[in-house]
Amino acid sequence: MGKIACANVLSDLYAFGVYCIDHVRIIMAVCDQMTEQERAVVIPLMLKGFQDLAKVANLKAIVQNASVNPWCIIGGVATSLCTSQEYILPLNAQIGDVLVLTKPLGVQIASNINRWRINGGEKWENLLKVITEDEVLKAFATAVKNMCHLNKNAAYLMHKHEAHAATDVTGFGILGHAENLVTFQSREVSFHIDTLPIIKNVIQISEVIGNKKRLLSGLAPETSGGLLICMSKDNAERFCKELAEIDDRQAWIIGTVEAGSKTVHISSDVKIIEAS
Asked: PurM-like C-terminal domain spans which residues (predicted)?
């Protein structure tokens, strides 16, 4: 949980192409329903996870604020002092650009289903009719691996391959964040999404839980998701190739930037790529 929170906080700056971050501070709340013994175990582990991933980003994370709350919460604030050459304003998507996504979708569905596995019950039994427990565990492991991964190298490559605009994909789903990004473009453009990379087996899971339409419509929320980037097609292909080399992970071209009235359209026959 701490690592996921750290990756999520830093992505706000990575989406601007800011890959050298100066400071990150932790904001957390301790659950008032935890016993003293639970707090003694859980809270240090959450802090360690956040601080360990911050070290990967060459940062020292310190606790800025802590409070007591009905929910156990961890987040933070990241800041960096930059020149105008060190960040990329998310305003300049151009007609003919393509859309690149650096992490697969479906992490929250995979995480929720793992809770079903732990708790058991009728929903879990129905799910086992179409998917095995091992497949659920693999989907959850893939989700955790992606949520804990920093978008730092993708932010660096945004400069090298001349990205025109970007955002990170989190709680509003890919459609919500794409709509937010297209709204602020300086040109009259629209986004067309024809491909959705989704964690392997999450489609089958979404069918059982009745969430498939929401997932394929881009409305399923994500946590610590990838960067959605606008850049030229040639640069996008080089970006994906180099990211795979230095990050050992795949990125995908998922759509195009077209002339339009600042809308986002996901194809009714959207292509699904299963990512593991």
From this structure: 95-263
106 and 21 in one domain?
no
Q: β-strand 23-31 against 165-168: which pairing, if any?
A: unpaired
Q: What is the pLDDT along the chain (276 residues), one digit of tens a residue?
A: 999 999 999 999 999 999 999 999 999 999 999 999 999 999 999 999 999 999 999 999 999 888 998 999 999 999 999 999 999 999 999 999 999 999 999 999 999 999 999 998 888 998 999 899 999 999 999 999 999 999 999 999 999 999 999 999 999 999 999 999 999 999 999 999 999 999 999 999 999 888 899 999 999 999 999 999 999 999 999 999 999 999 999 999 999 999 999 999 999 999 999 998
Angle at 275 between CA 114 and CA 124, to 5 degrees: 20
Residue 86: inside a domain: no
Residue 145 sits in which domain range? 97-274
Between the alpha carbon of residue 229 and those of residues 143, 164, 238, 252, the distances in Å are 21, 8, 13, 10
Report the relative pairing of strands 23-31 and 61-69 from DSSP bridges.
Answer: parallel
Total count of domains within the chain: 2
Q: What is the CATH number for 3?
A: 3.30.1330.10
- Entry pTM: 0.95
Residue with tokens 């392997």: 200
The phi-psi region of residue 5 (left if phi > 0; otherwise alpha if psi is between -120 and 50; otherwise beta) is: alpha
| CB within 8 Å of 87: residues ≥ 6 apart | 16, 17, 18
